[in-house]
Design goal:
By secondary structure, this protein is an alpha/beta fold. It has helices spanning 2-13, 31-36, 46-69, 80-89, 139-151, 162-167, and strands at 18-22, 74-78, 98-102, 104-105, 121-122, 129-131, 157-158. Keywords: Hydrolase, Lipid degradation, Lipid metabolism.
Length: 169
């Protein structure tokens, strides 16, 4: 966490006063992790998610500390983990049909053993998938994430959303 703290303080020393810090998403839920950990079945993999949650807890504390310590700064904590987890758990209510597999299939149970390339199979409608490839959300999922950070409230983004941050003095 010292590395992250040093970089945030460096940004401040260079004149940054409004900073959005995005936490780590539920990496145990990405198709690649599901593929290399078959014992998890259709569920997310607990170990990488636990590591992400531990890191995120420390990161949130750091954001709070720096906001109070660095005069005139506004550090905002964006909870990508919580938002993506909500999308995965409630995927059908967001209009998705698949929250486990990658739209771009390079082999494997969840279509994610081999990164996408020229010989990969692409799903018919990527807007129905949460994940584009073994690692990344689709544009449709990213739009939901962006909207929740732009205009959302705690716990998605704290202590203010992106729109409020840019409107603040």
């Amino acid at each position: 966490m010292i590395f992250v703290q040093n970089h945030m303080q460096r940004l401040y020393s260079l004149g940054a006063r409004k900073v959005i810090v995005v936490n780590v998403g539920p990496i145990g839920c990405i198709p690649y992790q599901r593929a290399i950990n078959p014992s998890a079945g259709d569920n997310c993999v607990n170990f990488p998610n636990g590591l992400a949650q531990l890191y995120n807890t420390q990161l949130r504390g750091l954001v709070s500390e720096l906001s109070s310590k660095l005069t005139g700064s506004k550090f905002v904590y964006a909870d990508a983990y919580g938002i993506v987890q909500d999308i995965i758990q409630n995927y059908s209510s967001y209009g998705f049909e698949n929250a486990n597999s990658a739209c771009c299939s390079g082999g494997g149970r969840f279509g994610e053993i081999i990164p996408c390339g020229p010989s990969s199979k692409i799903c018919a409608n990527r807007s129905k998938y949460v994940f584009c490839d073994p690692y990344h959300p689709t544009d449709a999922a990213n739009i939901i994430i962006a909207k929740r950070l732009l205009d959302g409230n705690s716990p998605d983004i704290w202590p203010m959303n992106v729109r409020q941050l840019f409107a603040s003095s």
